[in-house]
Amino acid sequence: MRKFLIVVLTFVVILSFAKVTIRVISSDDFAAFRREAIKEFEKLYPDIKVELISVGYNQLYQKIVTTLAVDPGAFDVIDVDCIWTPEFVEMGLLEQIDDRLTEDMKKNILPSVMRILQYKGKTYGLPMFDDVLFFYYNEDLLKKAGILRPPATWDEFVVFSQILQEKGLVKYGSIWGWAQAEGLICYYTMLLSSFGGRFFDENGEPVFNQGGGLKALQWMVDAIYKYKVVDPASINSDDRAMLHALANGDVAFGFNWSFAWTIFNDPEQSTQVGKIKVALVPSGKPGIVSNTSSGSMGLAITRGSKHKDAAWKFIAFLANRKQQKKQSIKYGAMPIWEDLYHDEEILKYHPEFEAMLKQLYYVTDRPSLVRYTEFSRILQIYIQKALTRQMTPKEALDAAVKEVKKLLGK
Q1: Would you report the helix, strand and coil content of the chain in percent, each value rounded to 5?
Q2: What is the CATH number of domain 2-131+296-364?
Q3: Taking residues 12-18, what's their average pLDDT?
């Protein structure tokens, strides 16, 4: 009996040493679901323990960069925003995972969301949800104004807004989050794309001061001062302010991320439950489907991780269809798998996903730049100068291009 106990104890000790612990850092926004998923994961993989550290999104970037600079193996898995991938790759923080991708992943994860963790033709992680700026409109207000459908172009957006205002249904057709922050670049990316513009040409030269880039900023300025259909408070507002205005029926149109749908249909946060719908983003050219701006995040394995295989198992687990379905039903996150947008159970809880899927095929990413943060700061400053009429749109974008060329060594 004594020998048997010794053998058992020895086996337990060996198992305890065989168990690996992976450290994951995540945004607070996703912590609740991931804590639930970890319990299921650890049952499936009893030899792996997951330690989750969560911080606010605004602290996440700094926490990752400063911690890994001191200790490259401090985290095994990190949250990566779509705008961080190039910089993190060039800093040597991310492990390439192309050889780990299954054919199912390559074929059936939506391409627009898979791109967020790709750089120079290589893949560095898996997306955990799909999100873009969606166009929301108040169907009830439009019907009261005699308008039978949402605007398909920006010209119609202006005309429909003016009709709503003339009838006294709203003071302004819309309010936007155009404060000097990253959200401003998301909105500008959407508008630039809808007018057929681009940030850089095929030679890497910045060209957003001409064509669709210039038309986009001119429209933003005109919408406030010339057409008077956008609330001037947009200049100092973030996307949260837009949420409340649309949820209270103060405006008829708005652009926000997928989570906004939950707020619009929560009686405790909205007076417009059941009245808000989703449509494709208006276009700058009639008959052309307009792209929107991406805003997804994913998980990546760090180059310094000592447990890369275990880290991959965790990432792949969170990305699988079963977990993506749970995340969608319980937390409203849009799945990364195209076929889940036709899942009857998901659509029972989130019928809006069917309409939202249409927009996911038309997405423009913010520029894939190693020095994206500095690029964004420059553009934010000069777009704001145009919006506050300190400079004309052309002057502002010319100045921004000049600084961007210096930044990128052009």
Answers
A1: 50, 15, 35
A2: 3.40.190.10
A3: 48
